[in-house]
Structure formats: C-alpha cells, structure tokens
Amino acid sequence: MLPIGKIRQMLKQERGQSLVEMALLLMFVAAVVLAINWDGLRDSAGGAYREMARSMETKESRTRMVEGYTGNYAEKAARYKSMSTEELRQTDNTERIAMDRANIAALGEFLLTLNKSQIKSLFPGVSDARLTGNDSSKPGVGLVDYSIGNTGDNGEALKINLRYNSGGYLNNKQALEWMQGHYDTNTANYTDKTEYPISYRLFYSDGAIDPKPAPNAGGVQSATVWAAFDFDNAGNVTSVKMSMTRSYQVGSSWKRLSCEGLSDIVVSK
User: Fold this and answer.
1) Within this chain, do residues 33 and 166 fall inside the same structural domain, yes or no?
2) Tens of pLDDT along 137-164?
3) Which domain holds residue 45?
4) Has this prediction a pTM greater than 0.85?
C-alpha cells in the first residue's frame, strides 16, 4: 500500500495537470471564436471608436475650442479679427485652419437642428438638387459670401465686403448673426439685401484672407461657405456637408478654388 503522503502528491499532480490542460483548451476555444468573429469585433470596436471621436468632435465644435491650444475660439478671434493680413500670417496657418473648421462646424451643428421646411424658408425657391449639393452649378446653398476690400496692411483700414447673390444665399445680416452664435431663423427680420462692408474678419486661414488667390484672374474674387444637406424621410436633417471656396471670374464664367483644409466638413447626428 502506498503511503498517504505519496497518494496526496499524485493527486496534487493530477489536479495540476488537469488545470493546465483546461486552461490550454479554453485558450484554444477563445482563439477559434476570435478568428471566426474577428470582422464583427473589429467593426464593432471601430464603430465605437468612431462614435466616441464624433462625440468629442461635436463637443469641440460646440465650445469652439481649438485643438492643441489653450485659448478658446473667442479669445483668439478677438485678437485675429482686426489685425492686418501680414501680421495674421505670422501665426501658424494650421492653427488658423483649425479655428475656421471649428467655426464652420459650429454652423453645421446649428443646421442639424432644422428641418427641410425651415431650410427652404431660409432659401426660398431653391431646388432640392441645390439643397443636397447635387446641382452641378453650386456645391449647396451659400451661408456666407464676401470679398476682401482692404487687407489692413500699410496703414489701410481692414474692409470685408459682404455680398448678396439673390436666391440660394443667406441674407447678409442673418449670416452675421449666425456667425456670432445668434441663430435666428425668422427671415422676416432680414429684408435688407444690399451689400455692405464690415471692418473685421469672419475667417482667419490663408485661403480665407487672401484677396486674390487666383492672381491672374480679373474681377471680384469672393469667398463662400456652402452647406449641402442630407434629409431623412420625415424631412429632418441627418447630416450637413460644409465647405469653403474662393470664386473668381474667367470671361463670363466663374471658377472655384477649395480653401485649404476647409473642404468636406461633415457634421452629422
């Protein structure tokens, strides 16, 4: 007969081997399950990451914080909006692009709260193709449209000429209210459709402040912020694609340049 101590030692070894074998089996099963479901897990994780990133980006645009900088949008805009173009260009354009993107995204956040009926009242007579950006002649409806009169250099006063181009463009005064975060949608309050100058900037990056981005083109070279909408079956806005372009005249036709870093800014629910 084996001693009691020997029996205990053998049982302990058997138990240890069983636990190891069980652990190895569980690892094998987990590997098989992971391999079978990898695409689904990857898509799920990616979707969660994208949702988190979208949430963070939305928060950033709503508070108008500039990524990578300690000051907020309002503080930096207060310094940048009236300095000369030459002085403004001494600040890294990456920062100024980030500010312009935040400004445009903030407009998009507001537009997400509207429905198709409200938007049509802001842009009366505009086709669905124009509203959705499927009109080949325009990349959407115009929210802000301006040209640069004076750059503020050489002692001259800074002058931004707000323009109004009839159908498909927001009224100038309403656009200014929106740019300052006052989102009035009552078009009856804005009947003055004349052009007029302002003495401060609305945007700050190179593509938005250059008076002549197409140096060999004649005539007025305007800057425009566009919005194109996606709607659901109930007419609610599900996403807005924002962009900023510079337009210049060639003969009797108009051409457009995309402003650096300010294309395809998509804000969605």
Assistant:
1) no
2) 899 999 999 999 999 999 899 999 998 8
3) 1-58
4) no
